[in-house]
Amino acid sequence: MSAVAAKNDVLKDLDVQVLSISVDSPFVHKVWNDNELSKMIGKDIPFPMLSDQDGTIGKMYGIYDEDSGVETRGRFIIDPDGVVQGFEVLTPPVGRNVAESIRQIKAYQMVRATKGAEVAPSGWKPGKTTLKPGPDLVGNVWKVWKVEEAFED
Amino acid sequence: MSTEIKAGCARPELMKKNEEVTQDSSEKEIKKEEQKLIRVGKPAPLFTAPAFYEGKFVNISLEDYKGKWVLLCFYPGDFTFV
């Protein structure tokens, strides 16, 4: 969570509200913030740390692990209409890539801003080629977009 | 929007609502048994939960953030290492 917190300013600029959530109580969140996380990022955690102590919310999102009684690393992108645009779920030992979450949000925001007139091909970042879906594009993606673009920074 | 919760000896009460409408209790039980991964392009299930934020204990509702983008991050537990 410290990595998400470290990028909170970037997310805030994108009008993104971060909410973290685990089965720990708010009191434990406070102690974790005060004693460890704040030392890792040099400030308090800048977003609400939610408690889902009986896993109800985790079950609603399908990421609660009944066996261990904790939530797995489920990360959901929810748009301003309250619609889930994307999610990623990892088992506990591997952390998420915050930069990828930010990239996906920027891509969804571009799509939303164009009302779907433009879409984001693989690896899209701001400044890279978007695609404009329509009859003319059918069978012609190769003319307007190169696979290498997916891997360029 | 957010209401502060008094820090007491008990853990804050859980306040969650599941918007899903179930026909009867038997169906509800089946729903409980098999949790479904939610689907993209569908509304995010709404909830309210106690939280720690800016030095206070407050209740946070997903609905409060309608009109904003939300990055909802579940994780296994405080003081876990990754």
Task: Explain what the structure shows.
The complex is a heterodimer of chains A (153) and B (82). By secondary structure, chain A is α+β, with helices and mostly antiparallel strands. Chain A folds into 2 domains: 2-97, Glutaredoxin, CATH 3.40.30.10; 114-151, no CATH class. Chain A is 34% helix and 18% strand. The model of chain A has no long low-confidence stretch (mean pLDDT 96). Chain B is 11% helix and 22% strand. Chain B has one helix spanning 25-33; strands spanning 48-53, 56-61, 69-74. A two-stranded antiparallel ribbon of chain B has the order 1-2. Chain B is globular, with a radius of gyration of 16 Å. Classes of the chains: A alpha+beta (153), B alpha+beta (82). Strand 2 (49-51) of chain A pairs antiparallel with strand 1 of chain B, so a sheet runs across the interface.
Brief characterization of the structure:
Chain A has six helices and six strands, in the order H-H-E-H-E-H-E-E-E-E-H-H. Chain A is of the alpha+beta class and 153 residues long.
Strand count of chain B: 3
Q: Within the CATH hierarchy, at the fold level, what is the topology of the largest domain in chain A? A: Glutaredoxin
Beta-strand fraction estimate of chain A: 15-25%
> Oligomeric form of this entry?
heterodimer
Q: Give helix and strand order of chain A, one letter per element, not per position.
A: HHEHEHEEEEHH
- Low confidence ranges of chain A: none
Q: What profile does the largest beta sheet of chain B have? A: 2 strands, antiparallel
Number of alpha- plus pi-helical segments of chain A: 6
- Percentage of residues assigned to helices of chain B: 10-25%
Strand order of the largest sheet of chain B: 1-2
Give helix % range of chain A.
25-40%
- Uncertain parts of chain B: none
Number of strands of chain A: 6
User: Numbering strands along the chain, what is their spatial order in the largest sheet of chain A?
Assistant: 1-2
How much is the average pLDDT of chain B? 81
How many independent structural domains of chain A? 2
